Amino acid sequence: xxxxxxxxxxxxxxxxxxxxxxxxxxxxxxxxxxxxxxxxxxxxxxxxxxxxxxxxxxxxxxxxxxxxxxxxxxxxxxxxxxxxxxxxxxxxxxxxxxxxxxxxxxxxxxxxxxxxxxxxxxxxxxxxxxxxxxxxxxxxxxxxxxxxxxxxxxxxxxxxxxxxxxxxxxxxxxxxxxxxxxxxxxxxxxxxxxxxxxxxxxxxxxxxxxxxxxxxxxxxxxxxxxxxxxxxxxxxxxxxxxxxxxxxxxxxxxxxxxxxxxxxxxxxxxxxxxxxxxxxxxxxxxxxxxxxxxxxxxxxxxxxxxxxxxxxxxxxxxxxxxxxxxx
Length: 327
Ligand code: NAD
Description:
By secondary structure, the chain is α/β, with parallel strands linked by helices.
């Protein structure tokens, strides 16, 4: 019997490694390019497409997929803000995702970014490689006794809270659905902005959270506050952030995601002129650290992502109930 085919977009070597390890039942056709209207036709003959965070699964893409009789979109990620779920529903295409693969991967990277930013570890690393052992300009602050403001206390937010507790930090949080978490006090967003030494974003990108960190929010923050975003780029109005950094109204920012990351992140752009002036200015600031949407990138997470994505397709084909369906 012929194997069902999956058109796998935006495929990277680490994706292939883990999907090939666990796949026995399907023919996976890997494409380097992102899924978007221009190349959606590559899915011809496939019952499923497998997509990632920056694929453009808008109405146009879904229209093409629907004409090609694709039946299911297998997202190998948790967020689905890049998918027109309404349109998929209208066309009878199911959207399945991986809601939980390793909150530890993202939370640990978040703390890694904070330590690197606060203690200026990347700057120190670059200096010592050049035998510059000066400490000037490398002063940080103790995390112990400081206040961490956590926005979104779901799976990742809670692991991050546990890590902050280990550092002896006081935790305040904002979430429209507060939970009962030991040692955490929920406050208004405004109070969180005013009181936090570190502000960490762990909520999804929605209409309500879009540009949650805007000029108004930035003006409420402490002068030495550090902002860390490992969720989605559009939670922050990046131009407003750049202005706040220029005017020294906040202490620094660590960004694993960027609102214009599509087409830039996950790729080696070192051989071309990057014309995005906002990111060009950000990377040049000594108090900004950018990583390329890598918070998820651990062996455990990649292994879980591959297994759960394949199981989602198994369940779809078997007509089982779809626990990971985006509704
Ligand atoms: P989750 O669904 O477990 O938790 C999200 C929390 O955000 C929930 O408690 C929810 O009530 C809260 N929330 C919803 N609207 C909010 C609002 N307006 N203000 C404040 N909080 C709000 O999700 P999770 O697994 O913890 O993931 C959080 C986010 O992390 C995802 O949405 C995704 O964007 C991002 N993420 C990033 C990476 C990465 O590699 N950088 C990897 C995985 C997930």
